[in-house]
Automatic annotation (TrEMBL):
Taxonomic placement: Bacteria, Bacillati, Actinomycetota, Actinomycetes, Kitasatosporales
Protein's recorded name: Acyl carrier protein
UniProt xrefs under Pfam families: PP-binding
Domain of life: Bacteria
Start and end residues of each Carrier domain: 21-87
Species whose genome carries this gene: Streptomyces ficellus
């Protein structure tokens, strides 16, 4: 079920996507609280947040739940080398999400 709010899908504002992604990361981390301002566009998933591959799978599920099939994390990382995935930062994913949400077919119900 997609629960996207119209403002994000229509405008794909980076700040709002970053805030939503930060909330998703907090869900993935479970009981480990993030400090205020800890997640920025330069925060790396592996090195800074210490997310493991299973955590990224969980994050991918949250992305699909929030944005529908318009944002496909597996497709996003499919062409990346292992080192690129390890060094992936939040900003690159935020930019990808914004591009996906601005795509003409993103607003269509799935």
């Amino acid at each position: 079920m997609t629960t996207s709010r119209p403002g994000v899908s229509e405008g794909a504002d980076e700040a709002e996507v970053l805030a939503e992604l930060t909330d998703m990361i907090q869900q993935v981390l479970g009981g480990y609280a993030l400090q205020e301002g800890e997640v920025t566009m330069r925060t790396r998933f592996g090195r800074d947040l210490e997310l493991e591959s299973i955590d990224l799978v969980t994050l991918a599920g949250l992305l699909e739940e929030r944005y529908g099939r318009a944002v496909n994390f597996a497709e996003f990382v499919a062409d990346m080398e292992l080192e690129e995935i390890i060094e992936l930062d939040v900003g690159r994913l935020v930019e990808h999400i914004c591009l996906c949400l601005k795509a003409p077919d993103a607003a269509r119900p799935r």
